[in-house]
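Subgroup meeting minutes
Present: P.N., E.W., G.H.
Scribe: E.W.

1. P.N. recapped why we're keeping a running log of single-chain structure predictions: easier to compare across weeks, and new members can see raw inputs and outputs side by side.
2. G.H. added today's entry (158 aa).
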Amino acid sequence: MEDARTKSEPTAHRVTISIPDALHRQFEELMTERGFVNRSQAIAEVLTQHIADYYSLKGNTLMAGTITLFYDHKRPGIKQQISDIQHEHIREVISSLHVLLQNTCTMEVILVQGPSKRLRQIANRLLAVKGVMAGRLNLTRTLLPQIQTEAEDEKAAS
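Output recorded in log:
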């Protein structure tokens, strides 16, 4: 007979670790500052991020994420260059959001999905645009639901 827990509750595993005192103190500070309810939640979040970072470096793992850019929107041609790069990668770029910050600074958050190697290349091109002051690529292995299919592409073409 099947246990009722297997259908409704995800399984969890207890893991015991030993870490140096200094690392433990830093981890406890992180937990407090980030507002984690317990150590299990904090460790799971840290491991999830580390695993996503690892897979993002492996190459062709399909991933979703964001590319965040901070740039001076008064710099001539910068918005056009950023837009052109996004259009060149229309299959990977899902959406973007522009937030006007103080002075002449703009934050742009670009939602992307595709092979991690390609997403890293897109991010690198965007970060290399003159006038981009800072930015970051954040990836996760959890994917967005499929937006379009090949069958839809074929119907649209006919």
